[in-house]
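Re: Re: ligand-bound prediction request (bumping)

Still looking for help on this. To restate: I need the protein modeled with N-carbamoyl-L-aspartate bound, output as structure tokens. Inputs repeated here so nobody has to scroll up.
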Amino acid sequence: MRSLIDILELSVEEIDELIATAEDIIANPAKYQEVCRHKKLATLFFEPSTRTRMSFEAAMYELGGNVISMASASSSSASKGESVADTAKVISCYADIIAMRHPKEGAPLVASMNASIPVINAGDGGHNHPTQTLADLLTIWRKKGKFDGLTIGFCGDLKFGRTVHSLIAAMARYTGIRFILISPDELKLPSYIKKDILEKQGIEYLQTTDLESVMPELDILYMTRVQQERFFNEEDYLRLRDSYILTPEKLENAKKDLCILHPLPRVNEISVGVDADPRACYFEQVLNGKYMRMALILKLLEVKA
Ligand code: NCD
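Reply:
Sorry for the wait, this slipped through. Here it is.
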């Protein structure tokens, strides 16, 4: 039995297989609509979420399965002091698979060590978010037809943005990748990621505070929201939140086939004027997230269509 806590638990071959399954689901949805009949997904979200939770739920329903979930973290037994380990043991009695989001880094890992069913990390604090990475990877694949040789710009909150951390880890395994890390000084990529992933693997990267000067080089631009909930003080958040706002004017020097991604929710970092640009891929990315979660559920439940 396998869980998914960190994207690196999936080999590049397994990522390819998940993409192939997602492509098949897109092409032949009817083939999949009953495959998880009588299976239950439990969504345990101890942090706010719209798309990740609903995406998991939609994924399970589209596979013919069912979903059980807590109404909210404050109405669950966690508010009475139940440990993550106990919650995982209890939910294992009710469901076949768990998707868990938690504000504490490592909580889904603890859950997976105590559950008797697969646990999927749906975001743990400022750490990781592997299923968002699956959505990102399918979008990049569908737009570019390759992962090798891409220059990827990450812009915004690279310190607390867990989607950035997971996507960097995943993309660093391909050849000829270049990362351009665009953030205010206070929100730079954590040094453990630079050391353990980028420097260890000899991957080329550039850090800058200036988005416009690097725009012409980018194949992918991954915009992120400044993660308000991880700030210790409101003043810092207010000062940094509008550091980068992507507008149609700023895209004038960008490549014609640039792919603009954002895990959403968007606050101010992409003006709505950009949405009509064919290079804006963030709503397709949402849809791709559902297909990749379907593929992942099938894999972890060992269900074949
Ligand atoms: C992201 C997250 O939760 O980390 N959202 C998501 O799952 N699509 C990004 C964010 O909240 O900024």
